[in-house]
Amino acid sequence: MSRGRWTSKLHTRRAALLVTGVAALALTAGCGGGTTTGSGQPAGSSAPQTSTSAPKTTGSASGAPTTSGAQVTVTDEAAKQLCELIQPQLSDWRVQGPTLGKISLNGTVHEWALRNGGINVQVLGDKNVVDRVMIAQCPDVHTQAIQALELQDLASGLAF
Predict the structure, then answer these.
(1) How far is it, in rounded angstroms, from Cα 12 to Cα 40?
(2) pTM for this structure?
(3) pLDDT (average), residues 127-142
(4) Terminus of the chain with fewer CB atoms < 10 Å: N or C?
(5) Of 71, 31, 65, nearest to 50 (Cα)?
(6) Radius of gyration of the chain, Cα coordinates, nearest whole angstrom
(7) 34's torsion region: left (phi>0), alpha (psi -120 to 50) or beta?
(8) Model confidence at 147: pLDDT above 90
(9) Contact (CB, 8 A) for 61 and 79
(10) Four-point Cα dihedral 118, 84, 3, 94, nearest 10
């Protein structure tokens, strides 16, 4: 293996870790300032929190609504991009094991969400979107990822 390939892979992993760290910092900062009322709403808030900024799907990447009712939809191109980000990592996840693989999964999903309109918060509210779009776009990659990470579904591996 040439040094350039290792350097490129190292930079890709560092970028994913940086994105994960920035996203975690942003989520932590967004959680401060006020207590919740038990309904998931900030104290003093009377309007439900909804988002209409998620891109609309043009294919079959959407699935059944989540229990919260806030289902994220993505374009077919974004779904394809998620598959293309995860597929090359499958062999690493098999070697590294599920613990490190789940960390990498989280970084990859954060990076993907950031690239596609910064929908990280929406994905946090509808983690099943990862499974829905991958089953529709690349079911084989989805199945291999679940097996490598030893999960029932990818949503259960998302901790962000």
Answers:
(1) 35
(2) 0.59
(3) 95
(4) N
(5) 71
(6) 17
(7) left
(8) yes
(9) yes
(10) 110
